[in-house]
Design a protein that fits this description.
Number of strands: 16
Strand content: 15-25%
Strand order of the largest sheet: 2-6-7-10-1-11-12-13-14
Radius of gyration: 29 Å
Largest sheet: 9 strands, mixed
Length: 482
C-alpha cells in the first residue's frame, strides 16, 4: 500500500437490489419469471403502463420484504406509502417507477458481518423498501430493443449506512445479505443472472477526519469479484486525485469489467430530481399486528442463530459451524445426517469434504437432489467407525452412492470392500512386503519412521485397499521389531 493511501480512510455504503421470488409481478398477474423467456412474453397493460390500467399490490412481495426487514433487525412500519419516482428511460414504460421514499416498509436495522480471524462488525441498515423493476434494453448493432418481461417484477432494495471501511468489508456484507435473502426464500440472490444487483457509494477522507468526503456511486456490479475490484479501484482513483490537488465530483460511475476501471456515466441524481409524490393509484399499506405476526412465523432459523446452535449442540468449532450454515440446504443436510446417528464431527468432515467436492464438480445441483441421502451417509460413517470398511473404500462407496444412490452396506458387499481385520489373513501379506523391501525395513530398524508409511501403502496395495490400516501398522512394527 502506498504511503498516500495510509493517510486516507475508505467509507462505503451499499445499495442492494434483490428480485423477489414471487409467482407474479408486483402490480399485475403476469409471471415474474423473466429468465430464458422469449422477449415481451410476460407482459400486460398494467406492467407496460397502458392508459387506464391500474396496479394492485402483490401481498407476497410485501411479506417477503417485511420478513427480510425482520431478519435485519429493522423497525417494521405498519403504515407505509408507495410513491412515483419520475424519470424517463426507454426500459421504464410508464415514465416513472413505483417505489417507496418517505415511508418505506422497514427502517433502522443492522446485521453483523464476519471480518476474518473471528472479528465481527455491525453494519447499520437504513431502510428496506419495495419497488418495481424496470425492463431490459438489448443492444443489437446500431439498434436497441426493449424487453418488458422484467418490468414490474418485485424488487426489494436494502440500503446500508456508511460504516463499511474497505472493499473486503463490502464483500462480506454483500455475502451476508445474499445469505439472508436465500435463507428466507425471498430471492435467489443470483448476481450472475441479475436477480441481485448492487451499487456502492464510495468516498475517502483523511484519517481522523469527521466529515465525509464526496461520495461516488459505482454501478454495474454484477458479481462479488466486481464489487471488490471496483471499490478498490475507485478508492485508489479518488486518493490519487486528492493527492494531486483535484476535487472529487459527485457522479455516477460504471464498472468496466474488461478494463478493470470505473467510467463516469452521469452526474449524480438527487431526490428532488425524481419529483417524488405519493402514488395516487395505490392505497397506503396498513399492516395489522396479526398480519405481521404471521410474517414473523414464516421466518426460518437464521444462519447466525443456527451456527451458534451447531457450536453448542454438536461441539463444532465456530468456523466449521459457519461453513455448514452458509447455505440453508447444506445446514439441513448436515442436521439430518447427525439426526440419523452420525458423529457430528465426522459428519462435518464428510459434508465439507466429499459432499462439497462433488457439488463443486456438479454445476447447479441442489443439495436436496443429491442421491446420497443423509441417512445413508450416516450409515456409511458408522460402517467406517465400526471397522466394516476403511476410509479409502468408504470414499469408493460414496462415489457409487453419489451416482446411483443405494445403501452403503449393500454396495460394500456387492463390491467385496469389507475391511480385512483378520490378523492371520494379514500376517502373510505383511511378511511378503517386509521381505520385498529390505532397504525400507532397515531404515525403520535404524529409527527412521518415514518408510513405515511406504510399507503400509505396499500392504494396502497387496490387499486391494481392504486391509485395516491400524492393524497393518501394528503388524509391521511387530514383524520388523522381531
Amino acid at each position: 500500500m502506498a504511503a498516500s493511501e495510509l493517510e486516507y480512510e475508505t467509507v462505503v455504503g451499499m445499495e442492494v437490489h434483490a428480485e423477489l421470488q414471487t409467482a407474479s409481478k408486483l402490480f399485475c398477474s403476469c409471471a415474474a419469471d423473466h429468465f430464458q423467456v422469449a422477449a415481451n412474453e410476460h407482459v400486460c397493460p398494467v406492467c407496460t403502463g397502458q392508459p387506464g390500467a391500474l396496479p394492485v399490490i402483490n401481498e407476497e412481495a410485501v411479506k417477503l420484504s417485511i420478513m427480510t426487514g425482520m431478519a435485519l433487525h429493522c423497525d417494521i412500519r405498519p403504515h407505509s406509502v408507495f410513491a412515483r419516482k419520475n424519470y424517463v428511460y426507454p426500459d421504464l414504460p410508464k415514465g416513472y417507477q413505483i417505489s417507496q421514499y418517505e415511508e418505506p416498509l422497514c427502517v433502522d436495522g443492522f446485521t453483523d458481518i464476519d471480518c476474518g480471524d473471528g472479528a465481527k462488525k455491525r453494519v447499520g441498515i437504513v431502510r428496506v423498501h419495495l419497488e418495481e423493476d424496470a425492463g431490459k434494453l438489448v443492444h443489437d448493432g446500431d439498434s436497441s430493443l426493449v424487453d418488458y418481461n422484467r418490468a414490474s417484477v418485485p424488487l426489494m432494495e436494502i440500503v446500508s449506512d456508511s460504516s463499511l471501511r474497505s472493499a473486503d468489508e463490502a464483500f462480506a456484507y454483500l455475502h451476508k445479505i445474499r445469505q439472508l435473502v436465500r435463507y428466507i426464500g425471498a430471492s435467489s440472490g443470483d448476481m450472475e443472472k441479475g436477480a441481485m444487483r448492487c451499487e456502492a457509494n464510495v468516498s475517502v477522507r483523511r484519517v481522523g477526519a469527521t466529515e465525509y468526503g464526496t461520495k461516488v456511486e459505482v454501478k454495474n456490479l454484477n458479481s462479488f469479484r466486481s464489487v471488490r475490484n471496483a471499490i478498490q479501484y475507485e478508492v485508489a482513483r479518488q486518493i490519487e486525485a486528492l493527492t494531486e490537488g483535484e476535487t472529487i465530483r459527485q457522479v455516477t460511475m460504471g464498472w468496466d469489467e474488461a478494463a478493470g476501471a470505473t467510467r463516469e456515466q452521469r452526474s449524480k441524481e438527487f431526490a428532488d430530481d425524481y419529483r417524488y409524490f405519493p402514488e395516487p393509484d395505490l392505497l397506503d399499506l396498513q399492516l395489522s399486528p396479526e398480519w405481521l405476526e404471521a410474517a414473523h412465523a414464516r421466518l426460518p432459523e437464521l444462519p447466525d442463530t443456527k451456527a451458534a446452535s451447531f457450536v453448542e449442540q454438536f461441539g463444532l468449532a465456530e468456523s466449521d459451524a459457519r461453513l455448514l450454515v452458509d447455505d440453508r440446504g447444506i445446514a439441513a443436510y448436515y442436521e439430518q445426517t447427525v439426526g440419523a446417528g452420525a458423529d457430528p464431527n465426522l459428519a462435518h468432515n464428510w459434508v465439507t469434504g466429499e459432499v462439497f467436492r462433488r457439488l463443486n464438480e456438479t454445476a447447479q445441483l441442489p443439495i436436496d437432489e443429491v442421491k446420497v441421502r443423509p441417512g445413508h451417509l450416516a450409515e456409511l460413517i458408522g460402517l467406517v467407525q465400526d471397522g466394516t470398511v476403511n476410509q479409502t473404500a468408504a470414499k469408493e462407496v460414496f462415489g457409487v452412492m453419489w451416482e446411483q444412490g443405494g445403501h452403503p452396506a449393500a454396495i460394500i458387499d456387492e463390491r467385496g470392500l469389507r475391511q480385512i481385520s483378520d490378523t492371520a489373513e494379514l500376517d502373510a501379506a505383511v511378511a511378503q512386503v517386509i521381505a520385498d523391501n529390505g532397504d525400507a525395513v532397515d531404515k525403520v530398524r535404524s529409527g527412521i519412521e518415514k518408510p513405515i508409511g511406504f510399507l503400509m501403502g505396499q500392504v494396502m496395495k497387496a490387499t486391494g485397499g481392504k486391509a485395516n490400516p491400524k492393524l497393518v501398522q501394528e503388524l509391521l512394527r511387530q514383524q520388523i521389531g522381531s
